[in-house]
Amino acid sequence: MWAVVLLTSAATPIGAQRTSQFDDLIPDLASKIASVLPAGTQVNVTVVSPQGANDGGLAPASVAALLTARGLRIVDAGAMTFISFSCSENLRERACLAEIRADDRRQIVTVTRPHDARLQAARAMPIAIELRPLFSQRTQILDVATIDGRLLVLDANAVTLYEQTNGSWRSLQSRPISGSQVWPRDFRGRFSVSGERFDVFLPGVSCTGRVNPLDLTCNTRRQPWPFGIENTGLEPTRNYFSTPEGLAFYGAAPFADADARWVVADRGGALEILDGARRVLATVGAADDVVALRGRCGPETYLVTASRTLNAEGSDALRLSQAIGRRLIESASPLILPGTLTALWAMPDPTTVTVVTHNVNAGRYDAYQASISCAR
């Protein structure tokens, strides 16, 4: 009687699982295991993080389901045969191995696969995130936008137009944001620019304006924000958005991979991949915000994610990753920001994103343009 499958090390409970770099190997290995075990074999499954893995390990529920689908029975105890199961990788390939032991008999089955060339290229490309200082002020900056060499600055009270003179910004015109609304504590605002016209998105308020001359008209109205993904706009008393299905998120970016369409940073701090119907397909990491960014040195599109650091200053960091299948491969060292991140917005130019930080010690808000620096 053949029986138990034991996947060595610390067990992971069956439930919601992270995507593993070995998931594509497991179906083939399960088939090979089933080919040497009679139908109805009792199997005890314990899954552990593989040696040499770069991510969160294998998914116990997936392994159990694959073995069950091939005629094996999942049990907790009472078996006579053990199978030690492990995965690893080297510079050329990934491999998963199962050692079947019953009495004095021993049999090994393996599955190997070369590394994805795109993954190898993503790891090898020497790039970095680069910040270019743009504007600073003591009032909270919600967003900035450049129009014909001039700068629009959005804060809690007004939209102000600046021009650059002798290396510094000089205020030209300013228009107040009308209304008697009370903003939430951590509120957000965003520009959407088209030529010399622009829209302003605020919690429960929408504005339209033009630059020549500067003009602004605002109304109490909630409408979708320009993320690309359908949404119901910013919650009036909160700082997050919702899809029509009710999924709450802080940021979103396009994600092109088969049936995947977007990646969002949800309210729980997870990076979720969504399909065309905005259903969650997989969790690929953790972040507080996310935008897409294209490099000037190639056609690749990356994801810029923001998260809190563990240093004493409590500053935030930006991380650059490339999507390979349904996995995120870190493409550069994290960039520690000079303060707390308060805004991260995509721009019309896909090679640049807007970053706003709050430097508590200096008592000011700083706006930057972030891009990818190549050949680092």
Folded structure, characterized:
There is one protein chain. With 376 residues, the chain is mostly beta strands. The chain contains three helices and 27 strands. It has a five-stranded antiparallel β-sheet with strand order 15-16-17-18-19, with no helix packed on it. Strands 20, 21, 22, 23 and 24 form a five-stranded antiparallel β-sheet that branches. Strand 18 (270-275) and strand 19 form a beta hairpin. The model is unreliable at 1-19 and 49-57 (pLDDT under 50).
Primary descriptors:
single chain; 7% helix; mainly beta; 3 helices
Short description:
The protein contains 3 helices and 27 strands. The chain is mostly beta strands and 376 residues long.
Give a topology summary.
Elements: H1 26-35, E1 42-43, H2 60-69, E2 73-74, E3 81-89, E4 93-102, E5 105-114, H3 117-124, E6 127-137, E7 141-147, E8 150-155, E9 158-165, E10 168-176, E11 190-194, E12 197-202, E13 205-210, E14 215-220, E15 241-242, E16 248-257, E17 260-266, E18 270-275, E19 280-286, E20 289-294, E21 301-308, E22 316-324, E23 327-330, E24 335-336, E25 340-346, E26 353-359, E27 364-374
Parallel strand pairs: 1-2
Antiparallel strand pairs: 3-4, 4-5, 6-27, 7-8, 8-9, 9-10, 11-12, 12-13, 13-14, 15-16, 16-17, 17-18, 18-19, 20-21, 21-22, 22-23, 22-24, 25-26, 26-27
Number of strands: 27
Approximate helicity band: under 10%
Task: From the alpha carbons, calculate the radius of gyration and give it in angstroms.
Answer: 26 Å
Strand content: over 45%
Oligomer: single chain
Mean pLDDT over the residues: 82
Please state the structural category.
mainly beta
Q: Secondary-structure element sequence? A: HEHEEEEHEEEEEEEEEEEEEEEEEEEEEE
**What is the CA-CA span between the terminal residues?**
59 Å
Strand order of the largest sheet: 15-16-17-18-19
Unreliable residue runs: 1-19, 49-57
The outline comes out as elongated
Q: How many H/I helices? A: 3
**How would you characterize the largest beta sheet?**
5 strands, antiparallel
